[in-house]
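[Automated response] Your request has been received and processed.

Submitted sequence:
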Amino acid sequence: MNDFPSTPYKRGKIFAKTGLKVGTNYARHYLDSLRGKPADRASLHRNTAEDMMKEFTRLRGTALKIAQAMSIDQGMLPEEFSRVMSRSQHQVPPIQRALVRSVIRQELGDYPEKIFATFDTKAFAAASIGQVHKATLKDGRKVAVKIQYPGMRETISTDLGLAKALFKRFVAKGSDINPYFDEIRETLLMETDYRHEGETLDRFHARYESDQFTTPVWIPEYSTERVLTMSFLEGDHADPFLERNPTQEERNHYGQLLWDFFHLQVESHAEIHADTHPGNFVLTDDGRLGIIDFGCVKTFPADFFRDYLMLLPTHLKRDEEEILKLYYRLGVLNGDPAKNKREKEYYEFSMNYGFTFA
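Generated structure:
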């Protein structure tokens, strides 16, 4: 139970160990280059990233969120780093069962075997800030119980400060990592409040439950800020669905539902389920798209929403002057594409993407 680093002190020690290991790797590489040995910088980056991911997986929480976010943006980190960091969604081991029982007792007032008719202490899903267990309520309802790892919310600020110092060594010259860390701070504060997630789940269920879409039902009497209980959603995620070699018609059906769901959110309610990891969608046996994990939902401000809706007509007209103005207002661009290589890449990608879909 004590192996999990839930305090700032324990987590700080792991960050310090990681920083020392990284510094040693690069110092050794520099000394080898002075001695005339062949310099394999790609292997250096890859080995260093592996060392970091090993420790980040122990830390979970903020560290893994940063790895996930920065691996998506090509050009921010060396390519070898991005490849290793992109595995962060799939490498999270569950916490010990004794710690699971302790968290349930602390949050719900008793051990799981006293509260639930059945409770599987082995998690069936684990992610960066929590893991999920199957259980049955005493009235017979099947539920999913999401448990937050200890100390996640309390260590966000210290983790961000330590991680920022570590990542500054690797980001591409001229890249600004502050927006990533600001966004991660905001997202984690939201995602570590499970009552807020339960309320969001309630809202989505009321708005989108239909013959096309379904969500779990929040069960607030078995939920706290760190434990979230909801009805269990039966179905497959994308990987097992595709392994069955479905027909093209079946693929098209669920693909269309995904498109329709995101379009409906934006058009009808100016909001979006912003954690689009494939594991957050369930393909149900009755042909509906199930949506889970509501820790990160964004609502668009009115002016942003207005400008966003103008993207399609301006791209249809190929009005590049107006498109550029929209990109600045929407935050797609922050600098001059004619003077900044990174801004030019964003501009060209966005323009080509917009023209393709217009």
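Summary generated for your ticket: The chain is about 55% helix and 10% strand. The chain has three domains: 8-93+159-172, 97-148+193-299, 302-357.
If you did not submit this request, please reply to this message.
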